[in-house]
């Protein structure tokens, strides 16, 4: 039987309808049946079953000691550390590396009796929009295995899509949770920057990265957020107060909600007319329920993607300098001199997309171009933040498409990298501004490929955003 929510699972466990061991075995069976999709880099089969047996005993003998997440089976992206387990960030450069500690978010869910079932495939260091840049090969879409899953958390999205786990922890730097969630017909959520600790998350671009959650139901995301949003001395960028569990949000009526939709986003030529029409129909439906919906202008939309790539590649060129063949990970066997070791280890260890972004980042940070590119991009980022602050004074949420199209065929990889980068046009806004955003399944096209709608909220108003997403319950008819 397929369970679609933690509430459903925990009810079945308490009634004796199923056991945690039976649940884990079903998930492992689904992993085997979908192995051709390449969603997992490693499956913790034996460990997951042993943990399940321990939890079953706990349910029978000491039910009062159960954690809040008992029965919650979770996959983690291959960018998130799990103590005494391998992690490679989808890259050869970290081949054979074993983590010495768990990410704060991972430890938080384990402490509440969640079970980690495996680590999922991803674009190398989170750099990609299709999950075709992984050292372990591409992740295929469960709805059509000739198509991409989306990236960079494609493995995470497919792990939930194919019912191999209940929850997936991914990472979102510019839409890496929301875009694959849209392509795979599941819910993908990116918290406010600083709401969840980044300790134990391998960095791509530190001021953009955030651990995100993929699930089938928004109520499960709400539950996971209440667990992983905890103060952490290891992450100095975290909020020191007003965390998710501390929010004082009080539920409103739908008639009290004001929504803005960005005119430039819906008039963009890259947007599929079907997706545009479906979102327009949904907005009309909301208006009939009393929600106030207004069209607004956002003239900075065309600058978002170039601004995002200038800043993230600059940060990546710095963050990835630590992978040099000296301290950990891959070291070239062909090196003779010290210089050889540095050059060959990085040349052989990094993939093409990572090398491209390191070079671009080094270029925009160079003395000759720093002011022309990096400084201007930072100025635009601040303009975006300021503009959004003004919008959220008048509106509760912004509605946008999650992605301009459905998942494209693996065989039709665009020759122009800019075409792939533009698939992030609607998702990078949330990361540039550090605001929360969620992608919710909206429908399927005539080829039965899923697509989603995206909601963005004001910074620190995560609970309010998830309340509204749950209230709308877009995904219910698709599950």
Q: Helices, strands, pairings?
A:
Layout: H1 6-15, H2 20-33, E1 40-43, H3 45-61, E2 73-77, H4 104-111, E3 115-120, E4 140-141, E5 144-148, H5 154-161, E6 167-171, H6 178-184, E7 187-190, E8 211-215, H7 218-228, E9 258-262, H8 263-266, H9 273-288, E10 292-296, H10 304-319, H11 338-349, H12 352-365, H13 370-394, E11 397-401, H14 417-421, H15 428-433, E12 437-444, E13 450-457, H16 462-472
Parallel strand pairs: 2-3, 2-6, 9-10, 9-11
Antiparallel strand pairs: 1-3, 4-5, 6-8, 7-8, 7-12, 11-13, 12-13
Helix pairs in contact: 2-3, 7-16, 10-12, 10-13
What labels describe this entry?
eleven-stranded mixed sheet, 13 strands, 16 helices, disordered C terminus, 479 residues, alpha/beta, Amidase signature (AS) enzymes, 38% helix, globular
Concise summary:
With 479 residues, this protein is α/β, with parallel strands linked by helices. It has helices at residues 6-15, 20-33, 45-61, 104-111, 154-161, 178-184, 218-228, 263-266, 273-288, 304-319, 338-349, 352-365, 370-394, 417-421, 428-433, 462-472; strands spanning 40-43, 73-77, 115-120, 140-141, 144-148, 167-171, 187-190, 211-215, 258-262, 292-296, 397-401, 437-444, 450-457. The strands form two sheets. Strands 1-3-2-6-8-7-12-13-11-9-10 form an eleven-stranded mixed beta sheet, with helices on both faces. Strands 4-5 form a two-stranded antiparallel sheet.
